User: Fold this.
Amino acid sequence: GSSRAEIEHALVPLGFGDSLEFYYGCEDYERGKPAPDGYLRAAKTLGVEPAHCLVFEDSEAGIDSALAGGMRVVATMAATPEAGQPGHQDQSKAHVQVQGLLEVDAALLERAMG
Assistant:
């Protein structure tokens, strides 16, 4: 759901912008989250059926977006405040929840894909 400028700004400190084949910002598709447009466009560009896509999300709207597109979802809870706190995101609809990406391994990916 971020703009291309915001994505480009984030890729610099992460140091892997050159390894991406493509990315889409919110201006590259018609409807934003929770509509699935961005995820479906990325799947089409990759030539992959949505059911074979695994999405990593931290927001409720993002999880709803990926599910609406027929994709599997791993929710990352690291940036989500506890329930009842401002900014809390309900991630219960995700197929798998992890505290952070360091928990992701082959077994988790298999479990997430069902």
Summary: The mean pLDDT is 94. The longest strand covers residues 72-76. DSSP finds four helices and three strands in the chain. Residues 6 and 25 are 8 Å apart (CA to CA).
